[in-house]
Amino acid sequence: MLLLALSDAHIPERAIDLPHKFKKLIGVPNKIEQVVLLGNCTKSYSFVKFVEHISSNIVVVRGEFDSKSLPSTKNAREEIPLSTIIKQGNFTIGCCNGYTVVPKSDPLALLTLARQLDVDIILWGGTHNVEAYTLEGKFFINPGTCTGAFSTDWPPSQDPEAEPDKKTDETGSFADAEPASAAAAAAAAVDETNEAETESDDEADTQSVSSFCLLDIQGSTCTLYIYTLVEGEVKVDKVVYNKS
Amino acid sequence: MSYAETIDQAVTNCKQQTILMQRCLVQDKLMDALKHASVMLTELRSPLLSPKQYYELYISIYDSLSILSTYFVESHTKRHHLADLYELVQYAGNILPRLYLMITVGSAYLQSADAPREEIFKDMIEMCKGVQNPIRGLFLRYYLSQRTKQFFQADDSEAKKANVNFIITNFIEMNKLWVRLQHQGPLREREQRTRERKELKVLIGANLVRLSQIVEMDFELYRTEILPLILDQVVQCRDVVSQEYLLDVVCQVFPDEFHLGTLSDLLTTILKLNPAVPINKVVLTLVERLNGFVERNTDVEDLTRGLAFMSVEEGDKNLFFIFWKFLSQMSEERPDLSLQELAPVIRGILKLTLRWYPDNISNVDVLFKFMHEKCKDYGKAASEELDSLFHDLLLASEIKSDTAFFMKLLTECDAYEGLLSAQNLRLQKDCANEILDTLTYAEWRITSKAELEKILQVCGSLFKSTTEKASSSLMLDEESELDSGNWTFAPDQEKLAQLTHLCYNKSIDSHSELLLTCRNWFQQSGKNIIYHSPAILANYWKLIRRCQLRSKKKPETREKLHVTMKQLFKHASRIINDLYNACGAGCFDLLYKLNVQTASLADQCELSDIAYDFFSQAFTIFEESLSDSRIQFQAIVNMAQTLQKTRNLHTESYYETLITRCTLHGSKLLKKQDQCRAVYTCSHLWWATEISPLGEEEGVTESFFREGKRVLECLQRSLRVADSVMDNVQSCELMVEILDRCCYYYIHGDETSTHVGVKYINGLIELIRTNLDSSALEINPILGDGSKNTSDFTYIGIDGSYIYRNPASSVATVYNKATPSKAVHLESIPVEHFNRTLQYIRDQKDVDDRFKAINV
Amino acid sequence: MALFFKAPIDIEILLDGEESRKHVEIANSSDSPTARTLKDRYPIYEDGESVSGRVTLRVKEGKKLEHLGVKVSLVGSVDLLKSNGESKKRPAETFLSLSADLCPHGELMHSQNFPFHFKDVEKRYESYRGKNVDVSYYVKVTVFRKSTDIVKHKRFWCLLYNRDALLPAVSSTPADAKSVKLNIGIENCLHIEFEYSKSQFSLKDVIVGRIYFLLTRLKVKHMELSVITRETCGLEPNQLSDSTSIRYEIMDGSPVKGETIPIRLFLGGYDLTPSSQSNYFSIKNYLSLVIIDDDGRRYFKQSEIMLYRKRN
């Protein structure tokens, strides 16, 4: 059973659309059984239509920029819950955008939430930063932002040496991407006057990495596929989680 | 001699006669064989057959006559001389069998070297005139053409010319017959006639195909001997079906180069056609051919060769010019042409110029201008059927495919906008939508203000609200929807919002100017700015982030960027204010969140004053306008989350002021359970945790803002509230949640720093136990053997909502209040939660010795 | 006749070189329909040609025949076949009669040969066998007896090639080349112009022409060209006329204004009779253009043409 987790699309206020390559990957009807929207995904008509086209089984939790209720269910005023639980296979999955989890994205705080909801897996969002880890036998998944939307959180460090962890690697690869975009900017720089001459195209730095997660749940095994868009190419990582 | 009544009978007769004929041929009884052939041919005189059936019969007979023909050739001069036979067969009393036989003999005779070719050709074609019945005549002449086609290989030009003349003569006669077929029979069967005629068109077209085979690459021959005659016939026949078909065939069968050389002739002919002929089809076919020429001849040499053809006639080698001349002429000579007919023609020429002169904007401009003028001439009569035509014209795939060109067109071609604005509002909106889609899909960067303004202007229709809505009674509903903070989809507005993301300029000032331009334009759309403002604001955020990153990379620019950033925050503030002014009640929650996020951004930029201002702004909205209790709770918790991640507010003790205010608001929330949760959440405000992008690390970084005493105070306070909650289930659940918080802090440090010690935790566990026990009487009967065997599971969510999980469904349902029907097992919620927490503590004992002090 | 009497003598007439001579095949003149398909075969002679041959009188073995003389004659006559209810031939004119005695009266004891020779015989008419008129040439041998004479005929065929005397019109040669043009029509309905290359044709000739449609409101089904041969005999008021014709479709379907339809008719394949004129009968040939419309109505226009025999 395939479960697609998308979060923080922020269309249209921060992003135009899903990356074309993502759309091609997931935009196939009847392949994915359930889609979880982990907040900030409900404001775009075209995006909602696209998700509905993937699967009719859509679970939504509220992000801070979502309205109280779903725009699509105009008549049945169903409120978007802050958190909810999904049962798939032998797993119970807690879903939550996490904008009311304090401290934000704190593993211990999330663990507390997992305990409160009595779930094996926590799907959360809000950070625009894809991550997955296990703690105390529970599985924590944040699919990041599916559109690479801008995040008002602290920006990842610009100094590659200061940070040893995984996030820096991503940032590093972004730094690699710079020469190419700089060339594009140089081409556009003709009419620029004094200031920008030496500046590189730094727009990419203000974007997050686009990513989403796909969970393949078979009985007590959950295989997580993490899709990230790096330098225009889709990268897939795989993590397997077994319920003990 | 008579004919069969049905096609089947006719074919059967033919087969019989063929067998008899073959038998006679074997015995060299030529006269008898001819008699059978003649009987067979009589079937072709039948007026009872439909064209299709006639064709079927013809095919069968053709094969039979081929047998005869072969015999003629083989026994020529051995048993007979074909010259004699040619005369002999002419004694047949009926003209149709006579001519078929005559052509069979004649064509057989042509195979012998000594045959008087010219005379035979001439005679055969002349005698064919005797058959004036359209269908019979057509097939007879088709037979002539089929039988003679093998003799048209000629090397010297005179013979070639003769052959060409022969085919053209036959073609002209066939076309006349074909046209005449339309007028056969009663008037009410006109349509059927037309249909039948179309079934027969290949018979006529075959002649042109044959011509194209003969002419090969002899352009002179084509230009002087072939095309004028064909075109003359096309014009003269005045027949719609024929004209349309023939011009199409001419375009298809002759080489592209020829069309280049004779373009003017072709176009002039188009103007002389029957007014009922759809000009656009013909033009399109021609354009396709010419475009195909470019496609096929990617080789420059070929292309030059092709263009050399054109110079034969045209002083000006510009193809577009020729078409333009045609267009003006058409406009003069055919004022009857409707927009419906004109638009596709323009579309065709557009296609041509885009293919041949891909970068030439002025050509396109001229075309759109022409169309615009025409639109004006026709006044407001533009009907809906035209919509798709104009849509096709304005958003032709050829235009859109190259986004750079498309942009150039949008921004440099005034006529484009003119033509667009001449359309009805609905179409304008459709087009604007598609334009935006195209740009966003290609992720085109808009870098200059002029460019942006042009696009906004083109998309101007989207700012105009559809007035019908205002008058409808739905208006009120919509109003209230916005008031309650509900979102309504507006795909048009969504696209405009996305447009802001296309704006980009390396220069931050210029970029900011682009955003301001957007803002100014969007102002027109009134309340709809609720859709755009967040997008513009988000772009300001990005700009601010850019400044922040730049100043980090190049400390020397820090001062200057600092000024810029302040300016940008001012713009951001203005955007939020605009939204407030325009929508107010509709979006307080949104305004609140925007302020909070802007504030956190300001904090990250070390602009504590600004951050403080935005936070204060958020509090003001909270105090004055947020009324929904659930929204209030979420707002406070979100504020706490944001504040907890700030780092630069400590000057002027902004931080203390803000977190106190936040906690205070939390403790004043309407519902006790909200108060409790808000306060224990706010305890984190006195316990900063690591922000790894800043290089902070738990256990390493010393400078965390932490005041354990306050943490404990918050927890104690929330516990008091929890205790005062009358609902036992809620009360116990809240206490377990507080216990969870305690565990959090317990892990984070010892009592000296967190003030949350073993004693306190043990006390809390005891309290919860007692409380659960006191309510045990109520719950025991059900709880006795555990609630796990019941089918439903219920949990209390992060905000105190009830989450019902039904095994029948993969997704839980969430309610804000406990619904009585599902309330049966509520009692088990805190019990189970408590058990899980205790289990967690037990587990921790294995890893952390400190936990051993806790009594479980 | 011979069926009733057992003829005591066989008379055989053999023309010189008969076997090598050209023959014509002429439809049997008998009235019975089956017999009509039978053909009679006759040797051909021309005008001015000598007719010679040999008569053999064969007496039955052991018998003898007494006779008053044997005569051979060459006869050319015009016979009317059935005038006014008479079913038998009625000789109208014997325009040629030459005779010669072969032997004086006496007794024939055994078979005997007698050559005969008519030198340079002038033959005024062509042989002709029509419905009402029969122009015949024959050699007649008569054995005169006291009782009934014994007679034997031998018919031969005479063809005349372009004899001025018979065809005065042909003689004025310039007219021969002149084309025939006719302009006919039905008001507001049909207007055609047709043209034949000439008005006089030899029997092996080809009629060539064209028809030009100036106006057609008529729904034409087809158009035929007929050659009609009309024989007329007798004198007013007892004139008899009868015609035979060939039909030849020259157009199928309805042409529009401005169309030109070609005419070409090979005469050579048909058994036509040259036009001729005599006191007792005339043979005239007409070319008839017939237009048949969709409703089966026929519109026609006849024009006389001269046919003459011409040496190949």
From TrEMBL, chain A:
GO terms for molecular function: cargo adaptor activity. GO terms for cellular component: CROP complex; cytosol; endosome; retromer, cargo-selective complex. InterPro entries: Calcineurin-like_PHP_lpxH, Metallo-depent_PP-like, Phosphodiesterase_MJ0936/Vps29. Residues 150-205 are annotated as: Disordered. It comes from the Eukaryota. Gene3D superfamilies: 3.60.21.10. Pfam families: Metallophos_2. Residues 175-191 have a biased composition (Low complexity). Residues 1-149 form the Calcineurin-like phosphoesterase domain. One of its GO terms (biological process) is retrograde transport, endosome to Golgi. Residues 192-205 have a biased composition (Acidic residues). Belongs to the VPS29 family. This is Vacuolar protein sorting-associated protein 29. It comes from Lachancea lanzarotensis.
TrEMBL record, chain B:
It is found in: Membrane. It comes from the Eukaryota. It is a peripheral membrane protein. The keyword Protein transport applies. Keywords: Membrane, Protein transport, Transport. InterPro entries: Vps35, Vps35_C. GO terms for molecular function: cargo adaptor activity. This is Vacuolar protein sorting-associated protein 35. Gene3D superfamilies: Vacuolar protein sorting-associated protein 35, helical subcomplex Vps35-C. Plays a role in vesicular protein sorting. GO terms for biological process: intracellular protein transport; negative regulation of endoplasmic reticulum unfolded protein response; protein retention in Golgi apparatus; retrograde transport, endosome to Golgi.
From TrEMBL, chain C:
Keywords: Protein transport, Transport. One of its GO terms (molecular function) is protein transporter activity. InterPro entries: Arrestin-like_C, Ig_E-set, Vps26-related. The keyword Protein transport applies. The keyword Transport applies. Coiled coil: none annotated. It holds the Pfam family Vps26. GO terms for cellular component: CROP complex; cytosol; endosome; retromer, cargo-selective complex. GO terms for biological process: intracellular protein transport; protein retention in Golgi apparatus; retrograde transport, endosome to Golgi. Belongs to the VPS26 family. This is LALA0S07e07712g1_1. It comes from Lachancea lanzarotensis. The lineage of its organism: Eukaryota, Fungi, Dikarya, Ascomycota, Saccharomycotina.
